[in-house]
Amino acid sequence: MKSNPAIQAAIDLTAGAAGNPRCNLTGETCGSAGLDMQQFPDLYRGTDCWLKDLLTVGFRGFYKGTSPALIANIANSVLFMCYGFCQQVVRKVVGLDKQAKLSDLQNAAAGSFASAFAALVLCPTELVKCRLQTMYEMETSGKIAKSQNTVWSVVKSILRKDGPLGFYHGLSSTLLREVPGYFFFFGGYEQSRSFFAAGRSKDELGPVPLMLSGGVGGICLWLAVYPVDCIKSRIQVLSMSGKQAGFVGTFISVVKNEGVTALYSGLKPTMIRAFPANGALFLAYEYSRKLMMSQLEAD
């Protein structure tokens, strides 16, 4: 049965929404630690940042920015919806039938294209998350005045200082991370699924191969673009104190003043997070999508 494109988009959107809360909640403590180490490498030199967060901010420090991270679920749902659309675009470009299976490389290209659309939704939520997670350190260092440490206070501050466009600080850097990053993300995932399928249909894979494939996809993403993510986060956090800098200027400043290794600060907790979080993401996505597709075919 051929599904209506609008119905297919709704299925992809819903399946993406089902997967992403699991991704965020599975790895949020590591995500918070990684961001702290990116922004303050002198303060957080190792994974002892978990202990420092516990001592200074309390247990809630492990989940700083979880609310906007969950709101960013919308952006990731858009990613999976656009992924379905972009797969059709790739089929049309290469001259394939609408129901034809794409190669792993073609799926990677579709994921890369889809990420550009998702970045428009993701950038504002990541901006709020980055500022919320680093607000304590920025206040104690005197770079910003003390204020309420809530999502709403951050949103009001951005609107007051920069207006609606202020939510798009770091958009170019976000695109620079997302477009190549999701090529490796979906490419790594599909290649892993092909490996585990070993000639069978990838749709027949069980939960363990799916989780392992999702974990590999997450590892591929962060290994490919972690330095770009570091600069993107620096730009978004520094804009909180009124400093405006482009990607190239921030990159040069970090390398000159802190060395190349600063671009990889926080990589360890990010990698620890990437495997289980993205394994949970793809497991929930694939099973939710399969369930809805079977219901659609039954009707």
From TrEMBL:
Solcar repeats lie at residues 102-195, 205-291. Gene3D superfamilies: Mitochondrial carrier domain (1.50.40.10). GO terms for cellular component: mitochondrial inner membrane. The keyword NAD does not apply. InterPro entries: MCP_dom_sf, MCP_transmembrane, Mitochondrial_Carrier. It is found in: Mitochondrion inner membrane. GO terms for biological process: mitochondrial L-ornithine transmembrane transport. SUPFAM superfamilies: Mitochondrial carrier (SSF103506). It is a multi-pass membrane protein. GO terms for molecular function: antiporter activity; L-arginine transmembrane transporter activity; L-lysine transmembrane transporter activity; L-ornithine transmembrane transporter activity. Keywords: Membrane, Mitochondrion, Mitochondrion inner membrane, Repeat, Transmembrane, Transmembrane helix, Transport. It catalyses: L-ornithine(in) + L-arginine(out) = L-ornithine(out) + L-arginine(in); L-ornithine(out) + L-lysine(in) = L-ornithine(in) + L-lysine(out); L-lysine(out) + H(+)(in) = L-lysine(in) + H(+)(out); L-ornithine(out) + H(+)(in) = L-ornithine(in) + H(+)(out). Belongs to the mitochondrial carrier (TC 2.A.29) family. Mitochondrial ornithine-citrulline antiporter. Catalyzes the exchange between cytosolic ornithine and mitochondrial citrulline plus an H(+), the proton compensates the positive charge of ornithine thus leading to an electroneutral transport. Plays a crucial role in the urea cycle, by connecting the cytosolic and the intramitochondrial reactions of the urea cycle. Lysine and arginine are also transported by the antiport mechanism. In addition, catalyzes an electroneutral exchange of ornithine or lysine for H(+), a reaction driven by the pH gradient across the inner membrane. PANTHER family: MITOCHONDRIAL BASIC AMINO ACIDS TRANSPORTER-RELATED, MITOCHONDRIAL ORNITHINE TRANSPORTER 1. This is Mitochondrial ornithine transporter 1.
